[in-house]
Amino acid sequence: GEDVEQSLFLSVREGDSSVINCTYTDSSSTYLYWYKQEPGAGLQLLTYIFSNMDMKQDQRLTVLLNKKDKHLSLRIADTQTGDSAIYFCAGARNQGGKLIFGQGTELSVKP
Amino acid sequence: DSGVTQTPKHLITATGQRVTLRCSPRSGDLSVYWYQQSLDQGLQFLIQYYNGEERAKGNILERFSAQQFPDLHSELNLSSLELGDSALYFCASSVRGGAGETQYFGPGTRLLVL
Known about the structure:
The complex is a heterodimer.
Chain A: E1 4-6, E2 9-13, E3 18-24, E4 29-37, E5 43-50, E6 55-58, E7 61-66, E8 71-76, E9 85-93, E10 100-101, E11 105-110
Parallel strand pairs in A: 2-11
Antiparallel strand pairs in A: 1-3, 3-8, 4-5, 4-9, 6-7, 7-8, 9-10, 9-11
Chain B: E1 5-7, E2 10-13, E3 19-24, E4 31-38, E5 42-50, E6 53-57, E7 64-68, E8 74-78, E9 87-94, E10 104-105, E11 109-113
Parallel strand pairs in B: 2-11
Antiparallel strand pairs in B: 1-3, 3-8, 4-5, 4-9, 5-6, 7-8, 9-10, 9-11
């Protein structure tokens, strides 16, 4: 079936790295995404990775994909207070565009 | 700003009522998606349209319906509202509606049913 799971909370200090984890059960998820939601705002796409990739780096963001364990992670380097938000991982199958979202991880960055 | 607009931003109504949420996709995008975000269910896909036709259906209740018009804007109709329908409703759009395409999300409509 379709299921995406994330831990609910993460607290880090400004300047540290943050690692947000996600596991998914649907091996048909071909595309995996990370979205950011700030308070009162919509969802902003941060980055995505195809299932045939192991890693993708985009400035301060690094996405790692372990297909064997169906585990996805988002690493934010040099975390800033402006990174405080809820981060959602989501998967999409090949045949359709609908996104299956995890519950979201609330990242709190303390100065 | 994603380019996707949603109106209204906030909506307060009573149980049993009917409301219509409106979405305008980004210029050039042919596909529109509706998602519901609630505390107990999280973010759930409701329905997708592509160029006026329904393409995929998710966990959308029978009391809810949607359509996409020739000008590509979409409306989500919620009827016989219940307290549990209180949620944030997001619209997203993408170019052709296929997997792997970036979905751009609107700011959402916050619905409160009293």
